[in-house]
From TrEMBL:
EC number, as in UniProt: 5.1.3.15
Protein name from the UniProt record: glucose-6-phosphate 1-epimerase
UniProt catalytic activity: alpha-D-glucose 6-phosphate = beta-D-glucose 6-phosphate
GO biological process entries: carbohydrate metabolic process
One Pfam family here: Aldose_epim
One annotated Gene Ontology cellular component of this protein: cytoplasm
InterPro entries in the record: Aldose_1/G6P_1-epimerase, G6P_1-epimerase, Gal_mutarotase_sf_dom, GH-type_carb-bd
SUPFAM superfamilies, A to Z: Galactose mutarotase-like
UniProt keywords, alphabetically: Isomerase
Residue ranges crossing the lipid bilayer per the database entry: none
Signal peptide limits: none
Gene3D superfamilies to which the protein is assigned, alphabetical: 2.70.98.10
Species of origin: Turnera subulata
Family to which the UniProt record says this protein belongs: Belongs to the glucose-6-phosphate 1-epimerase family.
Length: 352
């Protein structure tokens, strides 16, 4: 029995090595072609390279110093830098870049289940699967002229099909615009041949880098209903003019606007989220006690991050065979405005 298990493990390891070689070859050819599109003097817009622990990643570049990094493992955006080279996303110094562990920080993709809202593993399986390059995606309507984008695709494995018995195609495009904005567009199609629909919940679990969580305000969610995950998902209505933070928070805001602003007083920076197809928004910070219980999270790192997640949770998305859902997130970072020492979020939300 022990010999059989060892042989099986060796076979699986060899298959994974062959799969990785195939992925690397396709990626290399694709990125060489994309790099050839850049004219003389331009920064190469798309580059394949090795990341932490030898995992494949794609680097997108625009302008002087704007960039984004996307790991093929989990289709996981782990870096987004502005034109000054400043990092805008938070990734824990203790993040474990080793499958099957999900990467702590950046923008994990939660599919087909958000958190524990179902019978699957927390946040589903998309964030800890190896995605493939999509070299021939279907037509993709876009107003962006950027060459800095990557198309990825995920299809169910045999193991996934046992846990979640549905056939699907999950296509993701990550784009860095000429202005340095970051855009993620997901397209999920039901390819079941048995005529059955399926339902799922979804989130872009975005970790923003902030100077000091006590100096951060979130605008756009005031007066809305939310489910408090710290109180058994009980429903409440938000009070006050803005969200500020002085303890652990884990809330799902419902029927949210298409724009939300995160205002960082110390850095004089405002993040603006624009979203389509994603009616809900999750706000999460573990604070000190929970941070210490997370093995892949520094004890004091909660002070320098905030998750604000575009999501579809309260009402799961249901697709019949052949139907497709699209969920889009656009992130930009702009200088904050001041008025009597306070940030002016309404100007940001109206003009951004």
């Amino acid at each position: 029995m022990q010999r059989s298990e060892t042989n099986s493990e060796n076979l699986e390891r060899e298959r994974e090595r062959e799969r990785q070689c195939g992925v690397c070859t396709v990626l290399l050819l694709y990125c060489v072609w994309r790099a050839a599109m850049a004219t003389g003097g331009e920064r190469v817009p798309v580059e394949l390279c090795k990341g932490i622990n030898g995992l494949d990643k794609v680097v997108l570049r625009e302008g002087r110093a704007a960039s984004a990094e996307v790991y093929l493992y989990g289709a996981h955006v782990t870096s987004w830098k502005n034109d000054h080279g400043e990092e805008l996303l938070f990734v824990s110094s203790k993040a474990i870049f080793k499958p099957p562990k999900a990467i702590r920080g950046g923008i994990p993709i939660c599919f087909p289940q958000f958190s524990n809202h179902g019978s699957l593993e927390a946040h589903g399986f998309a964030r800890n699967r190896f995605w493939s390059i999509d070299t021939d995606p279907p037509p993709f309507p876009t107003n962006s002229t950027s060459k800095a984008f990557i198309d990825l695709i995920l299809k169910p494995s045999e193991d996934d099909a046992q846990k979640w018995p549905h056939s699907y195609e999950f296509r993701l495009r990550v784009t860095l615009s000429p202005a340095g904005d970051l855009m993620l567009t997901s397209r999920i199609r039901n390819t079941n041949s048995d005529g059955k629909p399926f339902s799922f919940t979804f989130a872009y679990h975005t970790y923003f880098s902030v100077s000091d969580i006590s100096e951060v305000r979130v605008e756009g969610l005031e007066t809305l209903d939310y489910l408090d995950n710290l109180q058994n998902k009980e429903r409440f209505t938000e009070q006050g003019d803005a969200l500020t933070f002085e303890s652990e928070v884990d809330k799902i805001y419902l029927s949210t606007p298409t724009k939300i602003a995160i205002l960082d007083h110390e850095k004089k920076r405002t993040f603006v989220l624009r979203k389509d197809g994603l009616p809900d928004a999750v706000v999460w910070n573990p604070w000190d006690k929970k941070a210490k219980s997370l093995v892949d999270f520094g004890d004091d790192e909660y002070k320098h991050m905030l998750c604000v997640e575009a999501a579809a949770i309260e009402k799961p998305i249901t697709l019949k065979p052949g139907e497709e859902w699209k969920g889009r997130l656009e992130l930009c970072a702009v200088p904050s405005s001041y008025c009597s020492g306070q940030l002016d979020p309404e100007k940001v939300l109206q003009n951004a």
